[in-house]
Structure formats: structure tokens, C-alpha cells
Backbone:
């Protein structure tokens, strides 16, 4: 569960309405009753409906219906319906819709990636990188999980992932075993993942005692051969495919034996198409 604070919900409103709604104020809409319904225009996976509901309730709208994040919808299916003051409806209409559209687009693309991968390998996990748009971490991660994925890294503080750029300062892959040993002596609870770009580097990672090999930008055929060699040396090694993973090749990497597919592609999905129906 991704928790959004009250101040974050308030900020969404304040960003759009810092000094009131000039249009509805001049039209004297306050005091008139209105209802709003968000409807799916196309097949989609709903996300951030809970936060949209909180937006609605912030301005005293009464919510009658809301689907949970992760719900698959068909064209015409309702996401949220609410009613209340007409000025309040217009106050949160666009913000709520935009939040749901962006998040649902990411959730839908993640679901596509998960389904494509698991059609070839039911055990493959889809993980989202930390390369989401700036300031969108919570929305991006909630959408990722609503679509059936998991966070690869929520940030630098929660994982140990060694890149070749780190190894430039510790003796490279030739000295990796010593690096891993020192890290394991200090941090006994966390797994250590190391990224490699060649089969030789992947084997150095396996021999180092690391828990997982993250292979960057190999073709599915190259990854399959690399995973086979690595698993001969250590049958329990976790093999991660990263770099350019998308909807067109996820199945191929899953079939090639990837335990995990790491992708940033999911975060740059087109927004879902949501219709906001407002009526007196």
C-alpha cells in the first residue's frame, strides 16, 4: 500500500486552485447541485481512484461508487460517481481525472507487460525501476503495483545494487569477490545485486557470492546463454534482465529464463482515456 498524506492531497487541490476558481465564482455556481461520474472510454486498469475519492471528499462531495485500484474496466464502466455542490465538483474535476488517467495508464501498461511475460514463464516477476518522472514516485509506484508489478528499487536507501560505475573505485570485477564479502559482513539482511554487461562479467558476479546478476542490454538469445552458464555455476542465482524491456520483448526475455524483468517503459504510458460526465 502506498500512503498519500493529507498534505499531499491538499497540495493537489492547491496547485490547481491557489486563489479560488474564478470561472465558477463569476458564474455563481456555488449552492447549485451537481453530480460527476468518471467513465472508462477504453479497456483500462484503474489506479489512484482512492486518492481521487479523497480529493472529492475534501470539498464535501458525497461519493456513491468507486472501484479499487487494480480493477480491470471495459468501455463505459464507471470508476467513480459522486455528487455535491456544483462549484466543488468543478474545483476537483480536472485534478481528479488527470490523476486517475496518468496512474491508470501506467497500471495498464504494467499489466500488459506482466501478462506478456507470464504467458511464457509464470514465475517471472516484472519490476519497475526508479526512473519514474520526478516528483511522481508515489503515483508511479502505486500504479506499478496496481498493474501487478513490484518496485525494483524505491530509491537508493532500500537496496544494494552495484553498477560498474561503483566498481571503478574498488578494483572492478576482478576485485568484486572482496567487495561483496565486505558488504555481506556488514549488511547481513539484504541481498546484493550486481549489474554486468557481458557473460564474463556475469560469471564474475556469480563467483563473487552476490545473490543476483542483473544483465543489462543483452538480447534474449544472449541472455538465455548467459543465464544457462551462470546457473550451472550456481543453480540458485537470481537472473535479472534489464535495459530496453518493453511490451514487444518481455515474453522473449521471460522465455529466455529471466527471473525478473526490470523496466522503465511502464512509466511512460499514454494516459488512460477517462470521460468525466457532469450533470445538474
Residues:
Amino acid at each position: 500500500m502506498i500512503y498519500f498524506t493529507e498534505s499531499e492531497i491538499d497540495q493537489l487541490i492547491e496547485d490547481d486552485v491557489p486563489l479560488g476558481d474564478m470561472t465558477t465564482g463569476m458564474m455563481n455556481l456555488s449552492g447549485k447541485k451537481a453530480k460527476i461520474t468518471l467513465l472508462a472510454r477504453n479497456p483500462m486498469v484503474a489506479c489512484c481512484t482512492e486518492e481521487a475519492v479523497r480529493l472529492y471528499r475534501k470539498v464535501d462531495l458525497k461519493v456513491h461508487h468507486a472501484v479499487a485500484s487494480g480493477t480491470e474496466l471495459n468501455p463505459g464502466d464507471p470508476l467513480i460517481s459522486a455528487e455535491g455542490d456544483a462549484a466543488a465538483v468543478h474545483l476537483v474535476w480536472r485534478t481528479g481525472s488527470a490523476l486517475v488517467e496518468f496512474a491508470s495508464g501506467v497500471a495498464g501498461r504494467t499489466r500488459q507487460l506482466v501478462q506478456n511475460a507470464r504467458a511464457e514463464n509464470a514465475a517471472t516477476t516484472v519490476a519497475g525501476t526508479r526512473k519514474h518522472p520526478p516528483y511522481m514516485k508515489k503515483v508511479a509506484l502505486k500504479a506499478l503495483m496496481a498493474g501487478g508489478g513490484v518496485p525494483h528499487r524505491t530509491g537508493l536507501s532500500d537496496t544494494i545494487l552495484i553498477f560498474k560505475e561503483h566498481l571503478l573505485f574498488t578494483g572492478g570485477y576482478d576485485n568484486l569477490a572482496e567487495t561483496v564479502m565486505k558488504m555481506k559482513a556488514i549488511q547481513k539482511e539484504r541481498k546484493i545485486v550486481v549489474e554486468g554487461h557481458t557473460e564474463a562479467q556475469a560469471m564474475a558476479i556469480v563467483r563473487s557470492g552476490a545473490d543476483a546478476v542483473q544483465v543489462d542490454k543483452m538480447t534474449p538469445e544472449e541472455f538465455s546463454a548467459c543465464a544457462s552458464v551462470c546457473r550451472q555455476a550456481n543453480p540458485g542465482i537470481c537472473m535479472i534482465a534489464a535495459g530496453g524491456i518493453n511490451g514487444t520483448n518481455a515474453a522473449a526475455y521471460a522465455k529466455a529464463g529471466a527471473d525478473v524483468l526490470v523496466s522503465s517503459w511502464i512509466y511512460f504510458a499514454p494516459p488512460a482515456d477517462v470521460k468525466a460526465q457532469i450533470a445538474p
Summary: Residues 3 and 82 are 22 Å apart (CA to CA).
